[in-house]
Every structure is written in structure tokens, then in C-alpha cells.
Protein: Haloacid dehalogenase-like hydrolase
Amino acid sequence: MTDEPLPSWTDGAARDAILEFVASVTEGPDAVPVEQRVAVFDNDGTLWTEKPMPTQLHYIVQQWRAAAEADPSLAEHQPYRAAVSGDLGWLGAAIDKHYDGDESDVSTVIDAIARLTDGMSVEQYASSVAEFYRTAKHLTLQRAYRSAIYVPMVELMRFLEEHGFTCYIVSGGDRDFMRPMTEDYYGIPPERVIGSALGLRYDEDGAQVRYTAEFDFLDDGDEKPIRIWSRIGRRPLLAAGNSNGDVPMLDFIRRGAVGLALLVHHDDDTGRGDAPYDQGAQKALAAASDRGFTVVSVKRDWSTVFVEA
Amino acid sequence: MTDEPLPSWTDGAARDAILEFVASVTEGPDAVPVEQRVAVFDNDGTLWTEKPMPTQLHYIVQQWRAAAEADPSLAEHQPYRAAVSGDLGWLGAAIDKHYDGDESDVSTVIDAIARLTDGMSVEQYASSVAEFYRTAKHLTLQRAYRSAIYVPMVELMRFLEEHGFTCYIVSGGDRDFMRPMTEDYYGIPPERVIGSALGLRYDEDGAQVRYTAEFDFLDDGDEKPIRIWSRIGRRPLLAAGNSNGDVPMLDFIRRGAVGLALLVHHDDDTGRGDAPYDQGAQKALAAASDRGFTVVSVKRDWSTVFVEA
Structure:
């Protein structure tokens, strides 16, 4: 029976919950009108890997290294020093601190990120990012990032679309870092990519939209439902995430008139790719039962994680 | 020949320019891929009337009047005094000043606008606005706002869609004031409405997105190309506007690889509804020829302006 829906999902509670939910909102007299069938997906850790570091950080480290090669004085300071030395412990610690609520080093990181694109046109940045996706390899899986996406989640997006849903990405990652790959990797066009944003200005002489040195907003935590409303103007029916920063979004959807909230749990220790981790997700996992989130166990609920590289 | 495209447009230069442009980007070996066929439309003065005052201001004045009835001390101050007295000269002058670059009274107006929705959930506001659209009549045309939309422009949106375009609204008006009517009036769903925004916050206890007392941004002038990029992530092929605040958007589109920029000119003195006006559009009209904007004359280029009321 190769026509069974969601073939990369193991028969079990998570898959059942999805199939039942989709049937409940698409069949019978209580079916939700097609235009209201919206689903939202976090990206890092939900649609693709986020370990050993988010893909965007891999790109950024490459760019910092190139900047420090062009201007060696930069290498005296963080985060360039870490980028040049290849010892990314400092960066890892900065992200760990962020997950624990301490933004001190992350603000240094954010400033240095904004500096990379200051004055660049949005189209130049898109080209630079596209070049990265063409050439970079995942740091531990040693395969193109194209092959580091989670097959069961892409399958879920296609399954939802077959049932009249429109899918969006709602990520803490930079919106414009995702856009050059989302159509190809996930079948999601740029207008349906919601993410963090660098400041923009309009350059009238060149008729170009350019980045400023300011960070605009981090699309994480409470900001996710806010940005969902700003961009979509509807409360979605289904949300999927994997970390503490997804809790408000999952809750917003779960507490609508009808809503399914999926929380991907990286408990996979079966050697299929990602190592297991709870970091950054402990609060979400602890709250899942009270809040009615459906936990998706990578170990138990997915029979396939990645495509063949 | 009732199958002729754009039947409410008079045979002439503007209609020819549209037909030739659409053929050039949709036919032959240089056709632009469907996913890149994006068109953007200003709303007030482009898709519907903006005189004697923008529709949103009519709604706001109603709400201010209701607020001052509930709390009479408010009526001692502007803009409530104007709303209660029905003498809207003060408001008209505030808007005239804005068009002349003086924002002093407009900031009082904006503060009082934000106060109306402070703490309200986005869904409550949508209900209040929908009720207004159900009952309000255009102040001079004396017909529902549903019938104060420009037939030739709605025809143009459908014509573009038949040729693979996706249409968006990009207005200086409040995004969430437009969303409750855009699907019904224009066939444009809420996720394709770009406009000015009030601040939002997430109310975790209620799982609601609510307005703050802050104004977030005015989607006018340079902000239009910025918001187009933020929301759509592509440079559109066609833009239509009617006032000075549309110039950066029109220019951004006109100076892409291919682009048609339409500037609606309210020169209609034929008694078909709107009185003629250039106010707020003088700079745009003066720049049209240099910048390659195609001027659409309401008088000459449209054979029908409104549906029968």
C-alpha cells in the first residue's frame, strides 16, 4: 500500500493525531473553508537540522572569516576570532546562554551579523546566500544542506496541501537567509517565509531595497504569533515547532477554535543522523501535556529522517 | 465583442500600455515565470475613492464620536471635538498639512487612532470594522463603500490573474482595517494585504494577539518598497498608485528588469462620481514623464468608474 499517507511516519499516536485532525477540519459539515486552512512550521530543528549549529550560523561564520581575511584587525575581536580560529566554542556558549535567557554575547553576534549586510541590496544578499547553499556541506553529516531536511515534515506539508492547506514557515532564523532555498527544499515560496528581519531602507537613486546596520526583530517566542498575524491575518489551524521559542505559537494555534500543535522531540539515538538533544526545548517538552501539544518523537514516530544523501 | 479584455477601459494609450506589457511578460521566449508575476496596488484613490476623506477616517470619526459620547470630557480636545461637532474642517486641514509635509496635527490624529484599539484583540477589531462596512455609506456618493470601488481597477486585477499574476494591495491605510473587506470587494485575501500597522503584543493568558497603544509604521513613500520586500520577497512587475506617496513604489517597479508603473490621475470632471483633484499627487504627476510612469486618466481612460449602486 504505497498510497498510504505519510509513509515516512511510523504508525502511532502522532501520525494518528495528524490524520484525525486533518479529517476533522476537511471532511463533513464542520469542514473549515479552504482559505482558512493555514499551517505554520518552525524551520531550525523542525524542518531541518539545527545541530551542531543552525545553518545560518555556518554561513555567517564563513562570511566573518572572509571579512577577517580582508581586514586582519577584525580577528582580534569576537566573534571574528572564533570564526578565524575555527574554534566555535565561544559561539556555542553564546547560543547556550541565549537559550538560558542571557543575551549578552548574542547581542555581539547580532551586531556582527548586521554589519555583514549593512548597505547590501536584498538581491545581492540573496545571491550570496544562494552561493552558500550551492557549495556548503553540513558540518557533521557531510552532505549538502539540501539533504539535511526532515523527510517526514516535508511529507506532512505536501499532505496538508493535498487537503487544501497553505503552509508557511515561521522561523527565528533570518527571513532572507531562508528565502533562497525554501521553494527548492520545501516547496514554500518566498512570500510564505516569515522570519527574523534586518532593518531595511529604500535607496531611491539605485531603486534598491538595502539592509541597514540595525536588527529589526527576532521572530521568536511571543513574536511568532504577532508576525503570523501581521503576515497572514488569520489564526492557523496547525503549527509545528521544536523548542521553547515555539511555545507561544503552538499555544496560539492550539487554543483557536480548532488547532493541532506538534512538538518535534529530538530523542533519536538510533544513529540515523542527528544526535538526541533536549537543549532549548526542555520548557516546551515539560509543558506539552498541560498545553495539549502532540509530541512527535523522532525516534519512534519517524521511520525515515533524511533522504539518501 | 464582449470578450474584449478590460471592457471598462477606453481604447487608448493607457489600455494599450497594459495590454502590451502583459503580453510582453507572459508570451514568447522571454515570458517571466508565473511565480514572479506579482502586481501591487495602492488602495485609497487607486482601488476606491479617497474623497471627501479616506474610508478609514470615516470609521475612525464614528469611533471617536462614540468614545466622546461615553466620556464627554474627551470632546474638549481634538480630534474628538471635530468628530462630535461633525465639523471635520480640522481633520481635513490636518491631512492637507500631511500632504504638504507637516505632520504636527497628524501625530495627534495617529495617537487618538492608536488609543481606539489599545488592548483590543485583532479579532475584535476585525468584527468592529466588518460592522462598519455592513452599515456605513460613502459621505458624498451616498452608497455603500462596496459600491465606491473602481470597476476598471478590479477588472485589471482579474485580467492580470488570468495571465498568471498574483495581486497584492500595498496601501498607506491600516492593514487590519482593509482586511475585513478586501476578499469581498477586490478578491484579495488578507495575507495579500500590506498596509500601515499598529503595534501588536501577544497576550499569553488569552492566547490572543492584541494592539498596543503604539503606532508601528506608516506604509507610505519609501516604506512601500521596503514592505513589499518584507512581505513578498520579490520585486513586482506592475504597480498602480495615485499619489506622491506611491512614487518610490512605482519607481522601484518601473526600474526592475521589466516593469509597468500606472499612475491614476483623478481628472474626472464628467460628473461620474469623484470630483477631479490633484491634491497629494502633484509631485507624482509632474515626475510621471521623466520616470516613465503611465498616467491613467479617469476622464479619458475609464468608460465606467463605479458599479451601479
About this structure: Chain A has two domains: 13-52+144-301, 55-135. Chain A has twelve helices and seven strands. Residues 55-135 of chain A form one domain.
